[in-house]
Amino acid sequence: xxxxNVGLLGFGTIGTGVAKLLLTNSALIADKVGTPxxxxxxxxxxxxxxxxxxxxxxxxxxxxxxxxDDPEIAVVVELIGGYEPAKSFVLRAIExxxxxxxxxxxxxxxxxxEIYAAAARKGVEVLFEAAxxxxxxVISAIKGNMAANNFGSVFGILNGTCNYILTCMTQxxxxxxxxxxxxxxxxxxxADPTFDVEGIDTxxxxxxxxxxxxxxxxxxxxxxxEGISSISAVDIKFARDFGYKIxxxxxxxxxxxxxxxxVHPTMIPVSYPLADVDGVFNAIRLTGDFVGPVMLSGRGAxxxxxxxxxxxxxxxxxxxxxxxxxxxxxxxxxxxxxxATLKIKPMGEIESKYYLRFxxxxxxxxxAKISGVLGAHNISIESMVQTARMIGGSxxxxxxxxxxxxxxxxxxxxxxxxxxxxxxxxxxIRIEDNLE
Length: 436
Description:
Enzyme class: oxidoreductase
Radius of gyration: 24 Å
CATH class of the largest domain: Alpha Beta
Protein name: Homoserine dehydrogenase
Number of domains: 3
InterPro entries: ACT-like_dom_sf, ACT_dom, Asp/hSer_DH_NAD-bd, HDH, HDH_cat, HDH_CS, NAD(P)-bd_dom_sf
Distance between the termini: 50 Å
Helix content: 25-40%
Largest sheet: 12 strands, mixed
Number of helices: 14
CATH topology of the largest domain: Rossmann fold
Organism: Geotalea uraniireducens
Oligomer: single chain
Strand content: 15-25%
CATH superfamily of the largest domain: NAD(P)-binding Rossmann-like Domain
Structural class: alpha/beta
EC number: 1.1.1.3
């Protein structure tokens, strides 16, 4: 009986989960594929640490070339992460005619075009279900059941660390630093949480979703990215008072020949299903022209759900190999010659509603001066709250606007912050209350 051999690059948390799942459910996988799918080699710099899994002698190596150059290995799974040596290893695997499965969203967001082109030349697959949303099958949904749709938008809560922090801040009234420290103690946040809390991880995932949904190449540097470190308990309370929750939202929208691609803290109405996605869970909301809105949610990270997604890709490739099919579907769903290069809409041109919070001295003329500047920059006020409660010696003034242009809002805030009546930098959060 033909055997499909798999090589695994990286034996960390996710790699261990993949090995465990492949070994534990080997009979089930063989029944579904029609032949054994065998883990032949694992390459990692650390081959001595006990991962709590029993492996056959000779399975582990510190030399990745033993795996990449083995003609009997048909599928290489890259779980190293980062850019190098992951990129070089993936390209070598492709050059050797091997199919690739990866969870490396950072690698694909920055170097995907080069990798996809190499795969096209060699006629091999590059699958990456685990790169977005962990165990949530969003990529296979876009490429499969929803492939006939023109997508108008994609919204995502794509980082469990940020979602956990914002959830705790909302439920407990705690500040960012306190909850971040707890998340690190629980293992939800890295010792250096920058990629998570500053939105970079989310932007990597959005780059892939935008490419898949809109059939376009994406220059990662063009994605506006803003994290949650400046969000305060004060802002979360005011958001709740107005009927909103704050989420770190990945936003992709098709706007004619332009695409919006941005990541930032966003107020969404508490009545929206996305607002109910709390803790470390992820969710993606897609809108197709025929299927309408579809939301997928689940565990977006961790050993088991991510391993499940990786194995799904391995099984998909294995089924194709059994049927004598190579490269049944291009990595971005669109045929290589059909992938466009749509320009990302400049951030200054996007239009949104805004939450604005000003810290001011308690004087009668304050509101008039602020509203005057906003009006001069074509920003219309929808509602306003000025409390008698002092925060840090200043009175908070909160304004919710109608739709306004980002460029106008930024110019207005810069002008307002020069006033001697303003005691701290003005805060703003964009609002999305029409997720179509």
